[in-house]
Amino acid sequence: MLAQKFNSPAVAVHIQKSSSQISDLDLQKLFSQCYPNTLDTTVVFKTVNNLPDSPYSFTRSGS
Q1: Rounded distance between C-alpha atoms, residue 45 and residue 57, angstroms
Q2: CA quadruple 33, 37, 38, 44: dihedral positive or negative?
Q3: What is the mean pLDDT of each run of 10 residues along the chain (63 residues)?
């Protein structure tokens, strides 16, 4: 499995809380793997002049 491009403690907590509410173990695993993948493929995070306090995020959709 490839490393995630988008990492967020808040998202990790959301995934953990949400997946704990899914009783079907296969669906739980699917959610836990697909949700971060969706963020990796649709959200682009950039900084301006490598300054950590100037983040911009872009959502890609379509082609």
Answers
A1: 4
A2: positive
A3: 73 92 95 86 70 61 62
